[in-house]
Amino acid sequence: MKRNKKKIIIVTVILTIGVISGVSYQHLINYLSSQAANPTGFIGRAMTRIWSVSFHEQNQWGYSLVNINDEDVILSVGFGSGSGIKHIKERNNKNTIYGIDISEEAVKTAASLNQEYINIGEVILSVGNVANLEFEDSFFNLVIAGQTHIYWGEVLQKGLSECYRVLADRGKLLITCEIDKIEYHLPQYRNPDDFAKLLFEIGFERVTIKTNNNFIAFICEK
């Protein structure tokens, strides 16, 4: 409840400022969507900090769906606040986790949250684009994309193909998201089976779909 209140407060403040400034409601909604996709400036910093608590439940549920071993090398795509990375490191101390995010603000926030792991080389964060992952083939045991694929737009298929490429055989891609966000941002994949079909076309051998209230997860095995 507290996490939802924080999300509501920040959105209400932004909308109020916009109304006072004479900005249209639709323009504000578009602005918020663009900030969610690539946080920048003051609003971007505020959003990344809100994410550190607002997606805790989603992360906790999603990670429970896959076996994470201490020796796994993991890639977190679009890590946002970095709270998901910290969640894993607190439970699997020997993991090496790489993270890429298109937003410099996200990298700053996540680096601050995970500084102790960065200092010992167990977390490596960088600005990057999912459509062009600068990693070798079959490098990771697990790729995580939480609340991010809905913002990939025209590079959705390319991004998913890149995730597939950097996964080792029998590696897994875990995609989690809020169902209503998929319906809004990716209406063509409102039906989970349609999205699973795309994942199979990319090359994944098995796709398991799980739901939990407003959360959905796709566990994709190479």
- Main sheet characteristics: 7 strands, mixed
β content, as a range?
A: 15-25%
Considering the protein shown, what is the CATH homologous superfamily of the largest domain?
Vaccinia Virus protein VP39
Number of helices: 10
How many E strands? 7
What name is given to the CATH topology of the largest domain?
Rossmann fold
Q: What Rg is obtained from the alpha carbons, in whole angstroms?
A: 17 Å
CATH class of the largest domain: Alpha Beta
Class derived from helix and strand content: alpha/beta
Distance between the first and last residues' Cα: 37 Å
> How many domains in all?
2
Mean residue pLDDT: 84
Q: Judging from the principal axes of the Cα atoms, what is the shape?
A: globular
Low-confidence stretches: 1-11, 13-21
